[in-house]
Known about the structure:
Helices cover 31% and strands 31% of the residues. A hairpin with a 5-residue loop joins strand 5 and strand 6. The protein has one domain: Uncharacterised protein YcnI-like PF07987, DUF1775 (Immunoglobulin-like, Sandwich), CATH 2.60.40.
Amino acid sequence: MKKSSLRRTLSATAIAGGTAALMMAGLAGASAHVSINPDKTAANSYALLTFGVPHGCDASATTKVTINLPDELTDATPTVNPNWTVEKVTQTLPEPKKLADGTSITKRTSQIVYTAKTPLDPHLRDALVLSVKLPDAAGKTIYFPTLQNCEQGQTNWAEIPAAGQDPHSLKAPAPSVAITAAAAADGHAATAVSTTAVSTEQMASVSDDGSQARSWAGLVAGVAGLVLGAAAFFRKRSAKVPAAK
């Protein structure tokens, strides 16, 4: 096998390995925050929002998670998690709010509070799922400031980036959802699909928020493919070299 070919193969493998390492570092960093993994982002659609609860407050176990709903939402339906009790907190509005269907409301759900039946170990993760109807606000990002209480201390994931600021530069960014353009057809059918998907989503995210598992699986498969490709290349080149007499 020519040295130049060997060098090219090893260089390509090294670059791929370096890229994989950077991707792993990025995933690890993202998983350190309370984040949202929405199954839909289309304006005016019904969506399941999975909140990934990461490490505790330093080395202290998590006891309660309070999710504040943005003003654009009037209600949210929490999914039952066997590890937590859940409560909806109602807020009286300063004045009646008119909804898109023409009705008016005087109260809204302002918070969803999950309280751990057993404090969540700081080395473990859990996921909390809310069903909501996203507002008709394509192009807007809505924020869900979340207070994480622990046996000792607390972390308030409530920082909202300024215009043009990278949210990853914040120490405790608020979980957020970027609303995209409305789908061509959405409504009661979407509600039925979301309801059917709740139990599956919850089961898949008991130890993670789902997106992390999919990201890691894809990354491992890609790296494995590179290794197998390199091995096949070496075998092919070796087969062409005549045996020594």
